[in-house]
Each structure stands twice: as C-alpha cells, then as structure tokens.
Amino acid sequence: MKAAIIAGCVVLSVLSAPGAHAKSIKRECQIKLDAEQTKITNADEIKACIKGFWPTISDPKKGQWVINYPPPAEYDHPFAGILMIQRLSMDEITKICLKRRTGCALVVNTDRGVYIDHRFGNRAACIIIAANNADLQTQHALFKDVLRHETAHCNGWAQNHPGMEGKYEWVEK
C-alpha cells in the first residue's frame, strides 16, 4: 500500500511538472514574394504573426527566427554528381550570382564540353556558393537551409522557384 501511494505521488509530480503536457508548437509565418521572387510582400503580416508567437516562447535566448525557403520534394534529395561548396561574403556572392543572395548553384555539365547551365546537360557537378555564417545571421538564415535550397537547384529546380513556399520559423539553438 505504501509503495502504491509513493508511486502515485511520483506519477503526479511528473505529470504536473512545467511543460509535462506542453506540445511542441510549430512556430511558422508564411512568406509571400513578389513576381520576381526578390521582395517580401507581406512584411506586416509576418511581423504580426511573429508577435503572436512571442508569448509562447519561454526563453528567447534559446532560439532564433530564421527564413527558410524549402524546395519541392521532387528536388529535395542529395545531389548525385560531384558537389563543391564555397563559402563567401554576400558582397563576393553578388559578383558571381548576379543578385544579392545568400547563395547560388552553378551546375557544371560535361556532355558537350564543359559548360555551366542549370536547365540542360548531364549535371556532372555542381558548385554551391553560400554566404558565410556572419552574413547568414544578418539575413536570418541558416547554412543547412541554404545548402538544402541550393542543392535542389543542382538537382534541377528552376531558378524562378516554382512550388516554393517560404516561411519564417522559430528554431531552437
């Protein structure tokens, strides 16, 4: 009897502990982009969305809001060819990738000589240019997300990002 009472007290204390019933809250705010997919068009909605989530975050120092543009599932897999990754500053990336971005992918083909073309060819190799961590932090981006996004371009995802749905999301550190 005494053991049953003690066991019951232990179960109650575990179940009543802070966070024992708390479900993991998925904190995401959808991003809408302009036709060129270069500018966020719903910044006020995003700010309101993020503000609505702040009361659910117990310690803001344990995480951060990041921007993520995950690719469609059909392109979201490891690259089958040779993959090279180069980390640069965003100023240097602008010289290679044309627009101010956190990264880009250059697909190297060898079926008719050596040439770079993301639309056609045998995709023998891919060079991913990604921003350094300091620049990614200023852009609210994580390297793993940029790498996933650019790898999808290596796999044939068009540069105009069909099927892309961007989001701000809370990520625990």
**Spatial sequence of strands, sheet with the most strands:** 3-6-4-5
Which descriptor suits the 3D outline?
Answer: elongated
Biggest sheet overview: 4 strands, mixed
The total domain count is 1
Strand/helix succession: HEHEEHEEEHHE
Structural class: alpha+beta
Q: Percent range for helical residues?
A: 25-40%
Distance between the termini: 45 Å
- Got a strand count? 7
Radius of gyration: 22 Å
Residue stretches low in confidence (pLDDT < 50, at least 5 long) are 1-22
Count of individual helical segments: 5
Give the percentage of residues in beta strands: 15-25%
Mean pLDDT: 84
Task: Tell me what the structure shows.
- The strands form two sheets. This protein has a four-stranded mixed beta sheet with strand order 3-6-4-5.
- The chain is an alpha+beta fold and 173 residues long.
- It has helices at residues 2-15, 43-53, 90-97, 133-138, 143-154, and strands spanning 28-31, 63-68, 82-88, 103-109, 115-116, 125-131, 166-172.
- It has five helices and seven strands; from the N terminus they run αβαββαβββααβ.
- Residues 1-22 have low confidence and may be disordered.
- It has one domain (24-172).
- The termini are far apart.
List the keywords.
alpha+beta; four-stranded mixed β-sheet; three-stranded antiparallel β-sheet; 173 residues; disordered N terminus; 5 helices
Question: What is this structure's SSE topology?
Answer:
Elements: H1 2-15, E1 28-31, H2 43-53, E2 63-68, E3 82-88, H3 90-97, E4 103-109, E5 115-116, E6 125-131, H4 133-138, H5 143-154, E7 166-172
Parallel strand pairs: 3-6
Antiparallel strand pairs: 1-7, 2-7, 4-5, 4-6
